[in-house]
């Protein structure tokens, strides 16, 4: 604090022509000291948080006081977070629902939060981790992967780290295993959520049964079901693909000034209001959910469904792939269908091998592991795959 005070300008204040300077204390004296008497009901609007807009224009999500309080109570209880004792580090910005919920949660339990102004500055993050030794990490998969590429990260002491949360995009299972070999087995908890559920809807249990590659089970007081992709109503069976629907006290009230999109997203089935997430997943016999794809990222290849995440997950088994993305390119010969395109960012040390050699290797791998209609017809290599502001692969830009 002393160092910061020395940076505050001092000396005589010179009036600026045409500007009126008012003393702050004089302004305060013009208003009463008492708080205004305002009745706040649980269903009242609390805030408007905009979606990321990864598949279209951002939408203003109206979140109520009940939504926020319920989400904070559910998540902090599920994770058994210790009041006044946690030290949290996250690369999520506050304009993202995860960053906002984390900031509110930090105050809710009296935790300390290490602020990260630039989540791509991995060396600064490592320096902060070494200084403050956080008990909780919360990041997107791409940031964890970038940290693992830094030698300094692997040398850190993780004995005080209780767990890591990961959300917002798929995390390759091979990379998950590598991360746990560094931070400690059992510390990685994948979860699933979105702006429309005030942050999170599912998570792997802390200290209980976990399944790598799964986003866990529904959180307390939260209902999740999977429905047929065509009807949008009939529930699918175990281990079958379906759209993920969520109901619970954390589900948004509406989209701001978008009644049509609100009615499409929030629908009543059997007397319960469900949020249609647009995400495709599978639920196993134990209730664990695996995200398969976003409905808008799913490809239609000659009438066959291609789930981009399924292909990407397998491709990450190739050790020279840093990041990759499967996107659909309109097929001019078959209107309404897609051509499979693969965009790859090779690891720096492998990029010198040349695009032709790498393309031959990746296509051979695809032919050995996928049905013919899933094999990419176009392969593009890039130095840096585009990422969104929170570190997710930006498929909208790739299209």
From TrEMBL:
- Which keywords does this chain's UniProt record carry? Membrane, Transmembrane, Transmembrane helix
Membrane-spanning residues: 91-116
**Domain AMP-binding enzyme C-terminal as annotated: residue spans:** 310-392
Q: Which residues form the AMP-dependent synthetase/ligase domain?
A: 33-256
Coiled-coil residues? none
Q: Does the record bear Repressor in its keywords?
A: no
Gene3D superfamilies recorded for this chain?
A: 3.30.300.30, N-terminal domain of ligase-like (3.40.50.12780)
GO MF? acid-thiol ligase activity
Q: InterPro entries of this UniProt entry?
A: AMP-bd_C, AMP-bd_C_sf, AMP-binding_CS, AMP-dep_synth/lig_dom, ANL_N_sf, ATP-dep_AMP-bd_enzyme
**Which superkingdom, per the lineage?**
Bacteria
Protein name stated in the entry? AMP-dependent synthetase
Q: Which organism is it from?
A: Desulfomonile tiedjei
């Amino acid at each position: 604090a002393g160092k910061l005070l020395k940076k505050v300008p001092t000396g005589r204040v010179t009036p600026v022509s045409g500007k009126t300077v008012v003393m702050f204390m004089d302004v305060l004296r013009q208003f009463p000291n008492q708080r205004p008497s305002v009745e706040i009901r649980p269903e009242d609007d609390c805030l408007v948080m905009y979606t990321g807009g990864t598949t279209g224009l951002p939408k203003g999500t109206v979140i109520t006081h009940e939504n926020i309080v319920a989400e904070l109570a559910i998540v902090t209880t599920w994770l058994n977070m210790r009041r006044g004792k946690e030290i949290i580090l996250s690369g999520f910005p506050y304009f993202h629902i995860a960053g906002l919920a984390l900031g509110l949660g930090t105050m809710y339990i009296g935790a300390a939060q290490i602020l990260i102004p630039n989540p791509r500055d991995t060396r600064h993050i490592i320096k902060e981790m070494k200084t403050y030794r956080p008990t909780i990490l919360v990041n997107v998969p791409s940031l964890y992967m970038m940290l693992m590429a830094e030698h300094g990260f692997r040398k850190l002491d993780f004995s005080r780290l209780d767990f890591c949360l990961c959300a917002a995009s798929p995390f390759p299972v091979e990379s998950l295993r590598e991360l746990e070999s560094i931070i400690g087995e059992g510390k990685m908890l994948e979860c699933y959520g979105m702006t429309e559920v005030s942050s999170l809807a599912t998570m792997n249990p802390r200290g209980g049964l976990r399944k790598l590659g799964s986003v866990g089970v529904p959180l307390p007081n939260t209902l999740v079901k999977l429905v047929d992709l065509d009807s949008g109503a009939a529930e699918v069976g175990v281990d079958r693909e379906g759209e993920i629907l969520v109901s619970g006290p954390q589900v948004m009230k509406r989209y701001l000034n978008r009644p049509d999109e609100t009615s499409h997203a929030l629908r009543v089935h059997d007397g319960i209001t469900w949020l249609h997430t647009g995400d495709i997943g599978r639920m196993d016999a134990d209730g664990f959910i695996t995200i398969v794809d976003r409905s808008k990222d799913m490809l239609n290849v000659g009438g066959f469904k291609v789930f981009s995440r399924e292909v990407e997950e397998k491709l990450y088994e190739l050790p020279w792939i840093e990041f990759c993305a499967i996107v659909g390119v309109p097929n001019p010969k078959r209107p309404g269908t897609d051509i499979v395109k693969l965009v790859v960012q090779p690891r720096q040390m492998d990029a010198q091998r040349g695009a032709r050699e790498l393309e031959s290797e990746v296509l051979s791998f695809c032919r050995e592991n996928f049905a013919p209609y899933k094999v990419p017809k176009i392969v593009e290599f890039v130095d840096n795959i585009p990422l969104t502001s929170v570190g997710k692969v930006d498929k909208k830009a790739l299209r």
